[in-house]
Amino acid sequence: MSPHYPTIADCIGNTPLVRLQRLPGNTSNTLLLKLEGNNPAGSVKDRPALSMITRAESRGDIQPGDVLIEATSGNTGIALAMAAAIKGYRMVLIMPDNSTAERKAAMTAYGAQLILVGGMEEARDLALQMQADGKGKVLDQFANGDNPIAHYTSTGPEIWQQTGGEITHFISSMGTTGTIMGVSRFLKEQKPDVQIVGLQPMEGAAIPGIRRWPQEYLPSIYQAERVDRIIDMGQQEAEDVMRRLAREEGIFCGVSSGGSVAAMLRLSQEVENAVMVAIICDRGDRYLSSGVYDVPSN
């Protein structure tokens, strides 16, 4: 019998869950990180990207040859560009012009066409306008139920299994909110008292990938009742913990992941004998040109 060889799509998910060793200090809590940068296109967004395309295909909403359009600040765009390449679609990505050079280069490497605009709200408006003009079909990660369902069917069950059901707290940055919505739904079904903690930037903070949405742009997939607590995170604290993760734990990630771990370290001061899981949503090499890693160590 010949061996079964996986495709690249088969390699999405089943990412490692690793324990922090130095940052937590002396504590009875177990602090765990889900390393989503280990996905093939380098982020947690690989899961919803493939889910949105394959589920739209199965419903007959799209077919090969269609042009797909999406507004993105980075990781979703890279993941969708990869998924479109796997499936044979043309991908048009509309993104803020302040996105890092690495992100833009990765998208074009997968064959996507880029349109740069001033900000994320403008990107979302343009995507819908292009669809109205018949230029393609918008997947709309902000309103597409296939986004959180990817985490309900994969990320959540993986975390439950990897912690042996002992998880007490789940911490995730909030951008489209797909990750926290899907994981919350699954974990709460298994264990209603698990604490779901969302992270948003403080007023004035610019943390790539997460937003403090104006009410009219709040993702429609977001359900406030699925989040027990929201922590406001400052940019400096997120960046400091991000750099410490690389230097003291060997975990190289982006700023929003640093913010999630900063929030987890805060929570760890409040409780005992907890098992906490935070999402490390991507890898740090995606941010090198922004200079966030240029600060010398103390």
Low-confidence stretches: none
Helix content: 25-40%
Distance between the termini: 57 Å
Count the helices. How many?
A: 8
Question: Strand-and-helix sequence, N→C?
Answer: EEHEHEHEHEHEHEEHHE
How large is the share of residues in beta strands? Answer: 15-25%
What is the CATH topology of the largest domain?
Rossmann fold
Biggest sheet descriptor: 6 strands, mixed
- Give the CATH architecture of the largest domain: 3-Layer(aba) Sandwich
Family: Belongs to the cysteine synthase/cystathionine beta-synthase family.
Protein name: Cysteine synthase
Catalytic activity: O-acetyl-L-serine + hydrogen sulfide = L-cysteine + acetate
GO molecular function, one term: cysteine synthase activity
Can you put this structure into words, describing what you see?
Helix content is 36%, strand content 17%. It is an alpha/beta fold and 298 residues long. It folds into two domains: 8-43 and 154-290, Rossmann fold (3-Layer(aba) Sandwich); 45-141, 3-Layer(aba) Sandwich (Rossmann fold), CATH 3.40.50. The strands form two sheets. The chain has a six-stranded mixed β-sheet with strand order 1-2-10-7-8-9, sandwiched between helices. It has a four-stranded parallel β-sheet with strand order 5-4-3-6, sandwiched between helices. It starts with 16 loop residues before the first strand and ends in an 18-residue tail after the last strand. Its cofactor is pyridoxal 5'-phosphate. Keywords: Amino-acid biosynthesis, Cysteine biosynthesis, Pyridoxal phosphate, Transferase.
